[in-house]
Structures are given as C-alpha cells and as structure tokens.
Amino acid sequence: FTVYVPRDAGALSLGAEATxxxxxxxxxxxxxxxxxxxxxxxxxYWLEPMVEVATDAGRVAYGPVLADxxxxxxxxxxxxxxxxxxxxxxxxxxxxxAKQERLTFARVGIVDPRSLDDYRAHGxxxxxxxxxxxxxxxxVQTVTDSGLRGRGGAAFPAGIKxxxxxxxxxxxxxxxxxxxxxxSGTYADRMVMEGDPFVLIEGMTIAGLAVGxxxxxxxxxxxxxxxxxxxxxxxxxxxxxxxxxxxxxGSGKAFHLEVRMAAGAYIxxxxxxxxxxxxxxxxxxxFKPPLxxxxxxxxxxxxxxxxxxxxxxxxxxxxxxxxxxxxxxxRSRGTLPFQLAGNLRHTGLVEKAFGxxxxxxxxxxxxxxxxxxxxxxxxxxxxxGAYIPPSRFxxxxxxxxxxxxxxxxxxxxxxxxxxxxxxxxxxRYAMEFCAIESCGKCTPCRIGSTRGVEVIDRMLASKDxxxxxxLLRDLCQTMLHGSxxxxxxxxxxxxxxxxxxxxxxxARTA
Length: 510
Ligand code: NAI
Prior knowledge:
This protein has 510 residues and is α/β, with parallel strands linked by helices. It folds into 4 domains: 2-98, Glutaredoxin, CATH 3.40.30; 116-324, NADH-ubiquinone oxidoreductase 51kDa subunit (Rossmann fold); 334-417, Ubiquitin-like (UB roll) (Roll); 423-506, de novo design (two linked rop proteins). Helices cover 41% and strands 15% of the residues. A hairpin with a 5-residue loop joins strand 12 (335-342) and strand 13. The termini are far apart. Residues 150, 152-154, 156, 160-161, 164, 181-183, 186, 269, 271, 291-293, 304, 381-382, 408, 410-411, 485-486 line the site of 1,4-dihydronicotinamide adenine dinucleotide.
C-alpha cells in the first residue's frame, strides 16, 4: 500500500510528522506493508494533515488526520479507500481541487518532491528538452508570447525582462530566483519549493539557456528550512543526472545552481536589496536605473524573477505559449495561484485563470469567514496592499481591473477579516510595519512611516480629526511619489484604502 503524508511546512505545523510516524508504527504492528511517501501539500490547509491512500480508483483523501486517528483508520480499512468520518472520497473530486486550473501547481501534492523519476513521470523536464532545441531568442519569444507577467507582484512581462538581459552583452550573466516570499498571507513560493522543487530548477535552467546565464541562485528566506532541504536534495539529484552542471543534457551549455539563505529582512525581497544581500552586503535598495537585467548581481546582467514566475516557465515550453495564453483575461494571461488566508473557513491555495472574481475565491473556495461573522474587508497583495471592501468583491482578478480601483493583486495573497477588525489599527500597522522594515536609504520611507504612525495616533486621540487626516493624506502622497522603492511607495495603499472605505473607524475619540 502507498500512503501519502505531506512534508509541507503547513502540514508539519499541524502534526504531519507524528501522523506519518503513527501510520508506519500501526502498519508494522498489524504486519501490513505500507510505504509512506512524503509529498507536498495539495493546498487544502483546513484538511491538513491530509493523508491520501493510493487505490485502483485513484487517491482517496482523509483529513485532518492526527496520530490518534490512525488506529481507527486502519480498523475502517482506509488502506482500501474505505469510508471513515475523516474521509473525503477521491482527492481529485473534492470540489475545492476539481474547480481549479492547475498549470504551475500541476504536480504539487501529487509527486514525491525528492524523486526525479516521479518528476519526469509527471511531465517534468519536457519543457527543458524543448528549450534545448530552440535558439535562445526563440525561448525568450515563447515566454513573451505566453503573456507571462512577473508573479512576485509587479506583473512586469517576463519575456521583455528576459529580452533585456538576453540583449545585454557580458562575459557572465546570472539567474536569480526571488524566494524571499515576505508578504503576509502568501505561501505559493514555499509550496512549490517544498512540493515540486524540480519545476523551479527546470524553469531557472530554461531561463539560463534563454539569456546565456551559467549561474543561478535561489535567494531563500531563512524561515523556510523545509524548502531549503527540498531544493538542495533536488539540485543534487538534477546535477547527478546531468540536468545541471557544465554540460546540461549533453548540450555543451552550462548551468549551475545554488541556494543562498536570506537573513530575514522584508526589504530583501525588493530586487536590488536582494542583490546587495546576495553580494554579502547590507540589504539596502539601489537606485534604478540601471535595471538588474542590465547591471544586476556583481554588476552583471541578471534575470531576477519570483519563484512562481520561473516555475511557470516549464509548462509554457512544454505545452506552448498559446496553451498558457489561452487562460486568463485582458492582459492578465495564464493562471495565478491565489493564497486564501486570514478569517476564512477554507484557507488554502487556489490556482485559477485570471478573471475569477474575488467573491468566488472568498465564498466558493474560502467558504466565507471562519467565525461566521460578516466579512468586513480583504487585504489583497500583502501588507502593502489595499483593503478591498465587500462592494468591490465582484471585481475580476485581473491586474488592470484592480489597478483601476486602487488595488493590486501583488503575489496573489488574500487575507480576510470579519467585522471585528479595527481599520484604524490596521492603517497604523501599515505605517508601523514600514517604519520597522525600512532600509533607511530614502527619507519619505524612513521618516515618513514614523511620522505616519504619530499622525494616526494623534488623529484617533483628537476631537477634530480633519486637520490630521489632511496631513496624513499629504504624507501618503509624499511617500507614494517620493520613495525609492515599493516599500515606502506602497505603504500608503492600506492606509488610504482604510481611510476611504472605513472612515467611521477613524472617528473614535480617545
Ligand atoms: P517594478 O515595477 O519597479 O519592476 C518590476 C520588474 O520589472 C523588476 O524586476 C524590474 O527590474 C523589471 N523591469 C522594469 N522595466 C524593465 C525593462 N525595461 N527591462 C527589463 N526589466 C524591467 O516593481 P518592483 O519594485 O520590482 O516590485 C514591486 C512589487 O513587489 C509590488 O507590486 C508588490 O506587489 C511586490 N511585492 C511582493 C512581495 C512578495 O512577498 N512577493 C513583497 C513586497 C512587494
């Protein structure tokens, strides 16, 4: 029998290690031959630890399964997929999964992340093999044609970034994966790296071939030790079979890859600070231009993309740009792994084509608030994203549609709040967060955020808030337009959206 128990950090935090150990022990006690595969998470986090059993009809899911449940599962004959109070039937039929369009996450939760054979058996490395038959400029063109835009948040067209790097003459170029996933409520990068690390490795290798880079680095946030282990094991396996090294798949082209651990600063997710940190320096923002694509790591042309962007490349090279571009709406092509977090019944990862509405994500997938109270707001796109009120929940997930209402999709994280949230406190928190995380290089961010906290405090304490509100709005404009990078430049979004949509929360008097 084959039983799957995720080694995903989210599942581990809910007791998956003990669950796996209990299954092995119970199987031994009963003299049953059971192989426990440690897969990634399917992303149905309210069911974690979610155990799956391979049956002739397909994989059958049980969850959340704790160590104490194991004896009763064996008694009920779960190894043959039998019914049980914790049973959910065939995994693929669970509506939450069945309604998704998984392209980038096609293998996450399905394969054994430590097995290159499993990766290949599920379509892995077909993209690289196709890329090896193309000229570098043709690979770049394929990515451009797919419409893929940067999934880290800024949504810049990946193909244009790659072309800039491709066209820059240099003796050395680099590929950097930004795996410093720092946004609140986001975990898509982590899930890919833990659940399907080879897809990131393959995507980076294709990027290297496309722009002529021979060295790649994965800049990984230090809070992700399980992703580090998964990546290092996968890199070693890929190198052992000639997918990495001096002669990738006998092509005569080199691509080397290493993981570098970050030290835990939000600002190091900003690409130029990241490069400084990767060079061994303090993580401080650089002026742009020059763009990293022209002068990046160690002054050399560098493609720096988010994990999900790079992990989306193999399927584009495998199935073709048209296949990918056919998903989505407007200028937002393909799919995005949305991450449902906060006060929702069914938190988890939902990969859908752009165009799905926020309402569908929150209700059809998320199941409404976990507390059962009315939903008051959703912060979309991380701690610097705008708060979206329910009147806007019908907005389709499309970069332009959200920009039009003063929001941004960012890395695709949705954090839901019920009506007990105090939006003035949330606005204050945005300024405080910026003050704590500012690299200190530019004045609007360094000083502005601290003044922002003070003004909000004063505003809440005063009986006449109008003067302070005008000052706060003015300060927000200065930070928006005067900051060197997106940290100071976006901290005003949550503040202004809270002011605009929830003025009553600022009307309290001390
Ligand atoms: P940006 O708009 O300045 O740049 C986007 C990317 O395009 C950069 O890599 C830039 O170097 C590149 N680029 C721009 N013009 C180019 C050209 N002509 N040729 C080649 N490359 C070009 O945005 P930035 O400051 O890099 O990112 C801001 C975003 O980061 C925000 O929108 C936010 O959503 C996101 N973010 C994500 C976080 C996460 O945890 N994923 C955390 C914080 C912010």
